[in-house]
Amino acid sequence: MTEATKTNDLQKQIIDAFNFRHATKVFNPDRKISDDEFNTILEAARLSPSSFGFEPWQILVVQSPEKRELFRDFSWGANGAFNGTAGQLGTASHFVIFLAHTDATMKHNSEYQQQFMKEVKQLPDDVIGFMNQAFQKFQEHDFHIEGERQITDWSGKQAYIAMGNMMSVAAMLGIDSCPIEGFEVDKATEVLETHFGVDPKLYRPAVMVAFGYRAGEPAYDKTRRTTEQMVKWF
Ligand SMILES: Cc1cc2nc3c(=O)[nH]c(=O)nc-3n(C[C@H](O)[C@H](O)[C@H](O)COP(=O)(O)O)c2cc1C
């Protein structure tokens, strides 16, 4: 096989996977993703990029049916109420909740960041000093990311990148997924604190994502704007 044929093959596989992926409403409850494949999906999150490399997200994989049910009442985007099914909550092989770090850990010069740069990034002290200054300027001056809400939302943006990578990798493995914002954040925060021991001062729910194998083919064909409508070249 020539290099050019290999590249064409790979491009086709990628585009096929992106066409295969759709926001799956109901999964086949009897089909489970293997540990091996799910670990690959998690690895895609772990290796995802993040602003300044701070990885401001935590991932909860909720496999206990009882724990999943705690979200049902207020998760209209995952409870299947609209189509009379058990929804993604009731049928997904793996159900993930992304938590976003709050200002407690993601405001410039936080204790957490010092530890993170030392232990995870293994940066020398002078580089850490430089990073602190650069990050403070970035938050206060460049991007105006100040205050609890803005910092938590900024963390959430990073979480979405990791989530996107997980869904793309899943699609390449023939695994379905659905990103989920259809829930009440305040109630989810409460459940997470009461039943999962998540301190809302440190973490807030950002987004959820379900993985599994589709129960049936999607009800609608994919619709998108054209590339010309989406992109302007200069
Ligand atoms: C951030 C985000 C949140 C979403 N929330 C939900 C949700 O709560 N429930 C749901 O069924 N679909 C949800 N979707 C799926 C979108 O409706 C879907 O991606 C879009 O309509 C395009 O369809 P496709 O993904 O099947 O191509 C969400 C998508 C994104 C990116």
UniProtKB/TrEMBL annotation:
BP-aspect Gene Ontology terms: 2,4,6-trinitrotoluene catabolic process
SUPFAM superfamilies: FMN-dependent nitroreductase-like
CDD domains xrefs: NfsB-like
GO molecular function list: oxidoreductase activity, acting on other nitrogenous compounds as donors, with NAD or NADP as acceptor
Organism: Photobacterium aquae
Pfam families the UniProt entry points to: Nitroreductase
Keyword vocabulary terms for this entry: Flavoprotein, FMN, NAD, NADP, Oxidoreductase
Cofactor(s) needed for function: FMN
GO cellular component entries: cytosol
Family named by the database record: Belongs to the nitroreductase family.
Name of protein: NAD(P)H nitroreductase YfkO
Domain Nitroreductase: 21-213
